[in-house]
Amino acid sequence: MTTLQKLPQDLHIHTTFSTNDSQVVEQQNLETVAFAAHAEIIGISDHFEHFMPHRYDEYCKAVKLHNFHIGTEVNGHQSVPLAMKYEFDYYIYHCWGKVNEDYKALNELISVGKPVIVAHPYATETDLDRIPENCLVEINNRYIWRFDWKKLITPYINKFRWVIGSDAHQPHWLNQNYARQVSREMGIRETILF
Ligand SMILES: [Zn+2]
Ligand SMILES: [Zn+2]
């Protein structure tokens, strides 16, 4: 039986803790992500505004139970003061293009000392000229193909460190891996045709 080829890392994954996100299906819970096991390094990054602060302990406990990294996706400057008060392994951050306060708050969030990944800049119209050098910037499977990525990314290739994420909201956004785990569990041998 072939062993599963895992992705090296996926730190942008949503689960049912993102309660107000209509794209998250009810089956997209931590058990589903654990079962798909699509990456060597997995981090959960539910929308900060959807579960914080009231479900912080519950979230950390649940994510840790699966040995995933505990992240959160922070939507702009308004959430930053509260996000800085709670411990996460890393942050994913929406820096909205024309919102000056978002750029300032990014620096504050970075000062916490945990990795801050600037999320899908093309989807949030982030001005990458205003993002500090060496920042972590995401190339995101959910959105990148909708944009002229060559044009958008080329000027910044050497300016930033890059992180690749799925931004999965549903099990099939984790690629073929859920189906592959089912096949493996059932002892099914895949027929390779070509
Ligand atoms: Zn996002
Ligand atoms: Zn997201």
What does this structure look like?
The structure is a single chain. Helix 5 links the parallel strand 4 (90-94) and strand 5. This protein has helices at residues 30-36, 48-51, 56-65, 80-83, 100-110, 149-153, 177-185; strands at residues 7-10, 39-47, 69-75, 90-94, 116-118, 136-140, 161-165. With 194 residues, the protein is α/β, with parallel strands linked by helices. The protein has a 7-stranded parallel β-sheet with strand order 1-2-3-4-5-6-7. It has 7 helices and 7 strands, in the order βαβααβαβαββαβα. The protein starts with 6 loop residues before the first strand and ends in a 9-residue tail after the last helix. It has one domain: TIM Barrel (Alpha-Beta Barrel), CATH 3.20.20.140. The radius of gyration is 17 Å and the shape is globular. One zinc ion is lined by residues 73, 94, 119-120.
Summarize the helices and strands and which ones pair or pack.
Blueprint: E1 7-10, H1 30-36, E2 39-47, H2 48-51, H3 56-65, E3 69-75, H4 80-83, E4 90-94, H5 100-110, E5 116-118, E6 136-140, H6 149-153, E7 161-165, H7 177-185
Parallel strand pairs: 1-2, 2-3, 3-4, 4-5, 5-6, 6-7
Bound molecules: zinc ion (ZN) (2 copies).
Contiguous runs where pLDDT drops below 50 for at least 5 residues: none
Bound molecules: zinc ion
- Number of separate structural domains: 1
Q: Which CATH architecture would you pick?
A: Alpha-Beta Barrel
